[in-house]
User: Fold this.
Amino acid sequence: MLVNLKEILEIAERDKIAIGMFNATGFDSLQAVIAAAEELNQPVIIAHAEVHNVYNDVSIVGPAMVAAAQNAKVPVCVHLDHGVTMEMIYRALRIGFTSVMIDASALPYEENLALTKQVVEMAHSMGVSVEAELGRLVTGEAGSKEDGPVLKAEDFYTDPAEAEAFCKETGVDALAIAFGTSHGFYNAQPKLDFDVVKNVAAATGLPLVMHGGSGVSEEGFKTAIANGIRKVNYYSYMSKAGYEAAKAEIEAGNSKYLHDVEFAAMKAMKEDVKEAIRVFANLK
Assistant:
């Protein structure tokens, strides 16, 4: 069942859970995510990240994602993750994605605001939801200037007052925030500031998004969700599970066919996604 982001996050808010967003970098990961969601009878968000377009162009994988969502037994949102160019956002909208993320968080506030407003106006006219981002995911010290102080990760955390003004002016449907997570693999357990989540949720009244979800503890997820996180982006550890299964299949020497390796990776990714969904939805 194909739905947009606003519709699927209404389920999350109703049940006080988070919906997992999983990147579909190819057909194996797409099959893994949909199968996991159907087996658990839970809604899910499948995403194509602009940075992954080099591996599978959106013109090829995008229509398959939309078709998979339409045929799924559970609600599925098809999302463009970290859209940084208007060209990619246009392409996703034309293909039939039901949600797009405009990631202008690296730009000055006013430029982020203006670009987000443009995307919201266009997407909403098509019934498509929009996620934006305020704050930046930074680990450790972000750098310094000779004439200024060293900037730390918390200097990039989302400001509740700024978020309130931003969301009111842009009309976005969800907001990705910075509160201590980072993309990729963690060298140590991240230190999350849940007060940022609570305060931004209270200020905006919107469902909030956790980027960099891989590697966060189960307790960390549950606390973040209790404070207002309604969408969790999860990819790195899912991909790692697929990689390790593919490596084991090759090393076992049982087959010389690529499809056997891909199938092993798909099954491993599905099980990893199921575990993530169980945590996000507080399933036993």
